[in-house]
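Running this now, will post back.
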Amino acid sequence: MKVIIASRNPKSKTFPITLDLAGDASSLTLTDVSKALHQKLPKYTPDRQRITTQDKKVLVDDKSLADLGLKDGDTLQFKDLGPQIGWRTVFLIEYAGPMLLHPIFYYLPKLIYRSGFEHSSLQKWTFAMVMLHFLKRELETLFVHRFSHGTMPFFNVFKNSAHYWFLSGINLAYWVYGPWFAQGEKLAVRSDVWIYGCVAVWAWAELSNLITHVTLRNLRPPGTRVRAIPFGYGFDLVSCPNYLFETIAWTAVCFLTTSWSAFLFNVVATGQMYVWAVKKHKNYKKEFSTYPRNRKAMIPFIA
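Update: finished.
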């Protein structure tokens, strides 16, 4: 079977090219096309290819070309996604930022603030919560998460990391660990009930977030892109309880510190997670006709 690959870049001097595939439309898949293109042009690894129909319709990898409506001699459109980096690596880089930056601000106040001081309970608990949160995220990345997409464009790692390295890294650390929140300062005064109440809510939300991540992991067998409807703790109310619980955890940090920097990070993070939740919620409803209608995207009973 012959398939013509044309570039979406009209100035391309490499395309169009013709691929001669061993088989027919009923036995070949888009994965076979991708591998053949990589064999002919080694620069374009399967991860950096986006192959669509001429009207830019996205094709499913594991369906036969016949099922996709393709026949001998048809033309497909190719887009180069650029150099790629693994999602797992991206997550590890993102979460490493706060884990490296917070200890610098916490343990080296003379270097950062030009003065030494004793940390308050507020600062000690905030430091512990932030470090444990990102340690949990690193461990989840290594041992829990299963990714439906193996890679992303390499240069996106800088954009994605900026959110964590600057907003939850430098921004949060500088303002929370400063002398204005030090032991003995009026701004640092918190009752034990206030402190331990915030810590308790944070701990419950972090544990709940982990439970939902494990639930999602168990839906996808290793090495597959299988999708299924999640049920159980949190999922009876919303499609993305992992985002809901993460928002609650950071809200607890906000109320513990009452720092504008924590609220800024939380607002930006929650806004982004809500956008992702709405998209996933719509995909669930589109993909599964039996998807529970009473679920919301991220906020129970609301949205």
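The CA atoms of residues 35 and 42 lie 10 Å apart. More later if anyone needs it.
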